[in-house]
Amino acid sequence: MSFLKEIKTFFTDIKIEHTVFALPFAVMSAFIASEGIPQKEKIFWIIIAMIGARSWAMAFNRVADSGLDAVNPRTKNRAIPSGLLSKQKMWVFGIFSILIFEFAAYSLNRLAFILSPLALLIISFYSYTKRFTSLSHLFLGLSLSIAPVGAWVAIREEISIVSAELALAVMLWTAGFDILYSLQDLDFDRTYGLYSIPKKIGVKNSLTLSKSLHILTVLILFSVIFFSFLGKIYLLGVILSSFFLIYEHLLIKENDLSKINKAFFNMNGIVSLTLMFFTIVDCLFGK
């Protein structure tokens, strides 16, 4: 396989398109922190940092889970178990991603660079959580919640209430949709002794918990207006996003999980992009 094909395989395997979940929240946070349009170089390095961090997290996950992926019907065709990439090459791509992330953090400011190892530790640790805790979904949420905090640090070199609110919203939102996504691995988790909310409390209760987490997400997103200059345009985005979340839950039923992938990627991608769009519009025209 040529080097270019290996790079393509790497980005396909780590599902680079799933960056759409966290990246919009980083952009949102940057616009709010800037109270308008952020400096171009700041946005550039924030995006590069996001790509680098996520690429490392996914590369590490693929190596850490390669044994499990090989015996899971849903994941057996991933690059390592299928033989398209070796663990060694995945490590190389992953380490290169770390270097990109660290250089981006260094280019942003001192605090971003100081906190960057902690971010890497958190996103790496997630890959092992299914081996010992049913709260792995929250750890995934914690990993993605770094995005708005990191972007705020990149702009203001501080952590604020607003960035913490956005982080909490991202964490609960992510945990909610990851619980839904993990329903398709319920039998596998039971067979191989892995931990998950669906395994612990069953399908019906998992659906209820996911809904509850998303209700909390919306409430937290609403609360952002009390600590920022955002107004009606942003609120409209939150309202629209809440309807998309409702539709997501209507797609998945206790006795019909066939639309999980549609609910997982399509609807949550729309949620994050909608929130980003209305936040940016509010930052530019809502004052």
UniProtKB/TrEMBL annotation:
E.C. code: 2.5.1.39
Compartments (UniProt record): Membrane
Organism, as annotated: Candidatus Schekmanbacteria bacterium RIFCSPLOWO2_12_FULL_38_15
Entry's Gene Ontology BP terms: ubiquinone biosynthetic process
Classification via PANTHER family: 4-HYDROXYBENZOATE POLYPRENYLTRANSFERASE, MITOCHONDRIAL, PRENYLTRANSFERASES
Keywords from the named record: Cell inner membrane, Cell membrane, Membrane, Transferase, Transmembrane, Transmembrane helix
Membrane-crossing residue ranges in chain numbering: 20-37, 43-63, 84-105, 135-155, 161-181, 209-227, 233-251, 263-281
Membrane topology, from the record: Multi-pass membrane protein
GO molecular function, one term: 4-hydroxybenzoate polyprenyltransferase activity
Family stated for the protein in its record: Belongs to the UbiA prenyltransferase family.
Protein name as annotated: 4-hydroxybenzoate polyprenyltransferase
UniProt-listed InterPro entries: Polyprenyltransferase_UbiA-li (IPR006371), Prenyltransferase (IPR039653), UbiA_prenyltransferase (IPR000537), UbiA_sf (IPR044878)
GO cellular component, one term: plasma membrane
Known cofactor(s): Mg(2+)
Keyword match Chaperone: no
Any single Pfam family the record assigns to this protein: UbiA
Main localization of the protein described in the UniProt heading: membrane
